[in-house]
Structures are given as structure tokens and as C-alpha cells.
């Protein structure tokens, strides 16, 4: 038998953490050992390092900074540690933000308690875990562009988006928009924020769904 997985539970509800600890110990067939639990996010990273955890469960409603910040900190400090995010709801936006923060899986705390063991073992094995309903919702959301996005962008921002989609560098963007490179960088950063894109590659991929990568006339295109 391989060594049991070392798990740390980070949850602001001590009763839930205790119940999850008992569940993992009794239903995992000896494959899991819970090394520690804590109820505050600012204690989590140190606890993970101290116990050399393989997997951490993180409640997204943690005080004082919230679970997303805890996930980022754990992943920054210990990239190999696997993180399973838990939430009291099946909120689509929260699930997406947790995955973007570095979580390897997302499970609702409203699920049947017995169903929490397989996701944890799957995450430990290197898989990404999401409930079927939530995965379907995420896929459907990604297939449906925001019809009002283009209307919220200025003419300059739509032109800038087209330039980014065409792979133009900052210097070329500055020339095209008749601004300094410093201003061009600021405009790009502002546009990425409005698009909800973390970088130019994501913005370019998103542009394809709006017809923004098709040339000068693309700024007036409608979502596909």
C-alpha cells in the first residue's frame, strides 16, 4: 500500500471541518490521513508547509481574506500541492474564479458527504474535478458571448481589441492609435480588465467569437 495522502482542511466552520475529517478517515479505506484543520485563511499556508500536505480543501468563505486569496497563496508557495475548493453554493462565477485562482477542483458543500471522498482522491491523482451540472453550465456560458459587451466599448477600445487580436505589439498599437507606448500599455491593461481576460492571448481568443479579428471592419461585428 502506498503512503496515505496527507490532507489539510481549511474551513471556517469547525463543525464541518470535524465532520469532513471523520468522513475522510472512515470512508477512504486508509488512503487519506487528515494532518490538521484550521478555520482561518491566514493560518493555512504555514499549516500546509508544516505538515507537507498533498491535498488541501479550502472553503471559499474563509476569513479574513477569502478562500480565493488562500488558494493563490498556497499555489504560489507550494505549486505541487493539490487544492479542492469547497463552497456553500454551486455558484458558477465562484467556481470559475476558484479554478482561475489555481484550484484543481470545485465541489459544493451541499453535496452528499459521501461524494466528497472520490473528488479528493481524483484531485490527488492529478485530475481536475467539477460536478457534471457545473461543468455543463460553464461550457454553456463559454459558448454564449455577452451581447452587450461591444456596446460597452468605445470605438477606440474596439479598434484596440482588433489590433490585439491581430497580434500587434505595444509599439505597433501605439503608432496605430497615435499615442505613446506608455499610454498604449495603459489602454491594453484597461481593455483586458473590461473583457475579463487575464492576458492578450485570452483577449485574442475571445475576439474570435465576436468577429473582432477579421480586419478593420471587425469593430462593428456582432457576436457569433
Architecture overview:
With 224 residues, this protein is an alpha/beta fold. Strands 2-1-3-4-5-6 form a six-stranded parallel sheet, with helices on both faces. It is elongated, with a radius of gyration of 22 Å. The protein has helices at 14-27, 41-51, 67-77, 92-101, 117-124, 132-143, 149-152, 155-165, 170-177, 181-195, 200-210; strands spanning 5-10, 32-38, 55-59, 82-87, 105-108, 129-130. Helix 8 crosses helix 11 (200-210) and helix 9 crosses helix 10.
Number of domains: 2
How much is the average pLDDT? 83
How many strands, what sense, and barrel or not for the largest sheet? 6 strands, parallel
The CATH class name of the largest domain reads: Alpha Beta
Strand order of the largest sheet: 2-1-3-4-5-6
Distance between the termini: 53 Å
Strand content: 5-15%
| Number of beta-strand segments | 6
Query: In the CATH scheme, what's the topology name of the largest domain?
Result: Rossmann fold
Task: Report the radius of gyration as a whole number of Å.
Answer: 22 Å
Helix segment tally: 11
Order of helices and strands: EHEHEHEHEHEHHHHHH
State the CATH architecture of the largest domain: 3-Layer(aba) Sandwich
Please state the structural category: alpha/beta
Backbone shape: elongated
